[in-house]
Each structure stands twice: as structure tokens, then as C-alpha cells.
Amino acid sequence: MKNRLSWLLIIWLVGPATLVDAKPPRVLADGKVPQDARLGELKTLNGHFPFVVPDNVADWHVRAEQLRRRVLVATGLWPLPEKTPLDAVIHGKVSRPGFTVERVYFQSLPGHFVTGLLFRPDKSSDSPRPGVLSPHGHGGRMQRHSDAEIKRQLANGGEHFEGSGRMPKLARCAQLARMGCVTFIFDMLGYADSIQISREVAHRHKDPRAEENQSDDGWVFYSIDADLRLQSIMGLQTWNAIRALDFLASLPDVDPQRLAVTGGSGGGTQSILLGAIDDRIKVSFPNGMVSTSMQGGCYCENCNYLRVGTGNVELAALFAPRPQAMTAADDWTRDMMKDGYPELRWLYAMLGNEEDVYCRPMLHFKHNYNYVTRATMYQWMNRHLDLGLDDPVVEQDFEPLTEEESKVWNDEHPAPTDVGPAHERKICQWFAEQTRKRFQTNVFESNEKHDQFFELASAWLVLFDIAMPKPDDIQLEDTAEVQMDDLVIRKGLLRDSSRKTELPLLSVSSTAPGEIKKIIVWTDGGGKKTAFDASGNPTATLRALVTRNTKVLLPDLLGQGEFNDSDQPVTEQRLINDARSYSAFTFGYNPTLTAERVGDLLSVIALANKTADVNVHVLVTGGAAPWGVAAIAMSSDKVYRSLVDTQGFRFASVKSYSDANFVPGAVKYGDLPMLLGSINRLRVAGEGDQLPALTQKVNAVFIIKAETTTKDVTDPENIKWILK
Questions:
Q1: How far apart are CA 314 and CA 320, in angstroms?
Q2: Which residue, among 366, 357, 416, has the nearest Cα to 109 in the 3D structure?
């Protein structure tokens, strides 16, 4: 059980650093910084996101499971919320040759309405029909080309009919219905009849709203409270898509074993994610967003953690081996035929049939889901939904729907009045309550709930996504040695080839002869300089820790000491250069500083464990609890004893996503107490008379031995304890 927990938990970032005007021995020359890859540019949504296919099927299945968990955690849907009654209403049938259109609304969660149009064949059938879900993408389901634009489209071959070509998103629904499919196109937030959250908030948010800094009566999207619980517009839209599929599959004339999804642009992004996490979908055509280039520029296409170490092509690959097709156009998908599509074909060949994935090059068209692209989709659906139609399926013209024929809300079906920030607060509270129910009702109810705890705690793997490095990846280059009285200080550079990191490290041992039996890894908010006084001499604490049988390792982690041009502690994380106010544009693509420091500390722990026949202990002081506790939790089989001063830190206290302590989702998954509760042989200072109630519950369930102390962490009694 301990080994399982060591893979499940990880933690956070910089707390209040210890302010010490110390000048410890430097590893590097003055003015030089480590040759560490992380000091380069941050990744943005416009970077390069190659798909590296694993060597074998078994490795892919492991990777795929990790990625599915990432998608669910990142969108705030792990564990999945309760599926409450949809209470769907279908009304206002309109007929056109070959198909009918009805207006739909239902509740994806209590009080939040999803709206859309349901297209059905106009002829009855003795057997259920395939169902196709159609997220529309930006522009809305009622997007209508101007006279000038439809003229241009007709001239370049992008559209063939002036009538249906004016409304290309409804054109695909109409033709799919004529082909025998029940098709549902539902509104993205802020479009058409989805009015409870405005388009400006969901897709055009730039500057923080006043409500985002107010939490006394609840919080809204983009606020720090929402970020700390992984509540996002993208997450809500993904939940709406899941519930839209629930609605479609529940219809009596739909065959739930023949469900498909197709969307373009932002709707392509939704199609990728839904296909990744919902195995009810059997056929997919995610158009315009399967690319190793730009990953989706809207708020509704980004959430924290989603693309750290991955990208849209690999996320689309999660649909394999089910049939999936797309096109490449003169946009960010233009390189797919040589970068992305070959890798998808290789994966599909490895899993079964490379002909079940297809990308059609149409570089003579700009970004689109036009007549030609739709024709490609129709052939794909005809083949893989077993429609039995003659190829090629040719789209027909139709009379566009009027505004009156397509409006969901009217006098008989009045629009909801619960809108704006008040509605956002209710949504955020509902999602938070779903998490509270899982923690309080399921996790700690009895000893029979262990597996549920492990499932819930596994979210921490996504929050940090760093494993204990392999011994061969860790190398220490000794650079110099100095002696201070009875201490020997060896200077070195610790490199982790898997992460391309380089850490300045001091190794402190006694001049007295003796075999090393214990190694103490000491991490502090101020870095290694905290172990030295203002004159650069070892402190009393360092001297007390070093014995003839004990060695102390003192690292500078990312942003500390020799990484930092200033002696001042890092108080803010690096953010990408984007004027839009949203955390996910940075942390949807880059690890948090805390995650990086967790990885750094794991490298030091791995180095200590390379010494045979020693016990490795960890000392955490001076605001280092966020990353220190996490690293111990995920390496508990490598750490024998831990002494931690939390200073009462909680991630919930962070006030901005630029804060060095910010870790999205930390509050949702139990904050620091959850991590403390996973560690064996732990003594904790800074928590008052006893461990927090949550940690006590974890201890009661898992019989983890932990204790608290009211003494200062460097009190002789505590030093004696860690030296045992």
C-alpha cells in the first residue's frame, strides 16, 4: 500500500522563504547560473507538440491511461460528478425535405441549461438509428455567411449551394439526418440560446472582473478559488458535451451502440476531448484542431495541466483504435501530413488497422468545415456507422432555418433568468460539493473504501507528473572541496538527464572517520544558504545534523540560490507573455514551480539512495513544505524518516495564479493535509497540538505512523529524532 501511495502523491511550491543573509560556498563561479533547460522560454499554445509513439502496445496502454486521467483531472471531472436528471424538453418541430428539426433544452447539472437543435430523418425506421453529436465551434450553430463570403466560397469550391452553404454548421446536421442519422448540435457557452454565461466571459475574457476577486458569497470562473479547484469554462463545456451525449443516447430512436461525434475548430477540440474520455463514441471526425502546432487559442480550449508534456495529436490518439478522420488545411494543421498523421497511422497499425485513421490534405482551403470537408466526413460516417449508402454521398441543398424556427426559448418555453456571475457561483459550488461528497462520504467511510481513496488521490500524479528518476539518469559531478573546522564540504552539480536539469549541491560530512549510515536531505525555502550564517559558517543546526555516521545534502532547487540573480526569494512564478488574464495559458503547457521543485528534490533523494546500505531522511524547513512534503509522499519507499515544519501552510491561502505557491487543483484534492497523511515515520511541526482532522482520518484508515510536535523543528529533541 505504501508503494502505491508513493506513486499517487506529489506537491507544491514555494512558501514563505527563510530570509537569511548567508553566503554559503558557491558551486559555480560568481555570476554563473546552472545549465538547466528550464531556464529557457516557457511553452505556449503556439509551440510544437510532436506525438512520439511508444515502442509497443503495452507501453501505449499505460500512457493512454495516464492521459485519460490527465484530461479528466485537468477539466475538473475527476472523479466524474453525479449525473443528475436531464429533464429534457423537445419542442417546435420544423420540417424540411428529408429531415425534421426540433428545439431542445436540458439541464447538464441542476439549474444549468444546455440548448440545441435535434435533426432527425423524416421517415420512420423499424430499428434505432445512429446518433451523431455535433459541437459547432466558434461562430455558433447559427453562423451565417455574408453575401460576399458565400460568393467567395462558391467561387473557390468551398461551397456548392448558396442556400445551405450560408449556414455550413447546420448543413452538416441536415445532410447527416438525410443519411439516416439522428444528429444533435448543441450550443457552446454564450452562443445562440446558451445565455446563462455570456460569450464575452466564456470566450473573450481578458481583464479580471471584479467578481473574480470576491469569494465571500462564492466564486466565479477565472478566480483563484476556481483555479484551486480546477473549475474552468473548458471543464464545464466538456461536462455539457458528456451530458449532450447522454441525451442523444437516451432517445428511443437512437442506437447507443452507434454513436459518433464531429465538430470543427473549437468543436474539433471538444470532439477530441470527448473521444478521449467517453468510450461510447464509436466514430469520430474532429476537424481543424488535430495538429502539432497551435493547440486552440480560446479560453474554452484551455485548462490547467491539459497539455503539459502532450498535445492535440496525442490526445486525439486516445480514440484509437476506433475509426477517426480529419483534414489538413492552410492553417495550423498544414504540417499534419508529415508531422502527426504518420505517427497516428503507425499507432493505428500497431493497435489493429492503420486504415481506420485518415487525414485528407486540402491545403488549398483556409481553416474550414466546408462542403468538401463535409463530403469527406459523410463518406467516413457512411462507412463506419454502417449506413449502407452508395458512395459518394452528395450533400443536397436545403432552405435555411429562420431565426424563429431555430430559437429554443420562446413564450411557451421561457429563457432562464438565473444568469451572470450569480449563476457561475452556483455552478462552481455544485462542482465543489461533488468533490466534498466523494471525500467525506466515500473515501473515509470505512476500511473497505481504500481503492476509492487511491483513485481519488491519483489526481496528484497529474498535478505534478514527475516520477522518481531512474538511478542511471542521476549523475553528480564533484567540482571542489573545502574544509570548515571539523566539516568537509564537497561542491557538486547534480544532473538529471531525463529532465535536463542541473542543481548546485553541497555534501557536508564530518572529518572524523566513520561509515556513513544515514544521509539527510535538507530542503529549505531559502535554499542551501540557510545552513550557513551571515559569515558563511555552518549553523549550529547543520553541525548538529552532521555526525561521523551522517552526511547532509544541501541543494539549490529551481529558483533558489545560484539559480537566482537576487538574494531575495522567488515570490512569483514565470508566466507566458500573454495579455489575457488566465492561468491555463501558462500552466496548461508548463509545470508549476512547485512541481519542478518536487522533481528536483526527488533527484536529490534518488542520489542519496545510490549509496548502498544507508537510510535516507528528509528535513523540510523554512517554507519548503509545499514541495518537500510532496516529494516525500511520492518517494516514501525511498525515505526512512521525515521531519517537516509546515509553518501552517495551505495552498488555499494563495491569492493569485502568479504566486510562487500556486498549484491548480490543490484545494480540490485535499491540500497539504492529504499529502501529510500519506507519509510513514513523520514528525510534523507548525500544525499546533495535533495533525489536521483530514490527516487523522487518513491515518485511521491506513494506520500511518505520524506525530506532531509543538517544538521548533530544529529543537535538539527533533534533531535527535531525525538522527535515529
A1: 10
A2: 416
Element (DSSP H or E) covering residue 361 = strand 357-361
To the nearest 10 degrees (0 to 180), the angle between helices 233-250 and 266-277 is: 70
Task: Let me know how long the chain is.
Answer: 724
Q: Which helix (H) or strand (E) holds 273?
A: helix 266-277
- Per residue in 150-180, pLDDT tens? 999 999 999 999 988 999 999 999 999 999 9
Listing DSSP states for 543-559 in one string gives: HHH-BTTEEEEEEPPTT
- Please tell me the distance from the alpha carbon of residue 654 to that of residue 456, in angstroms, as a whole number: 23
Q: Which H/E stretch holds residue 695? A: helix 693-702
Q: Is the peptide bond before 392 cis (omega within 30 degrees of 0)?
A: yes
Q: Where are the beta strands (DSSP E) in 596-705?
A: 615-621, 641-645, 682-685
Calpha distance 328→376 (Å, rounded): 12
- Cβ neighbors of 674 (< 8 A, separation 6 or more) are 9, 457, 460, 694, 695, 698
Give the predicted TM-score (pTM) of the model.
0.92
In whole angstroms, how far apart are CA 579 and each of 228, 261, 403, 576, 718?
21, 34, 36, 9, 48
pLDDT (mean) for 179-193: 97
∠ CA 474-561-551, nearest 5°, is 55
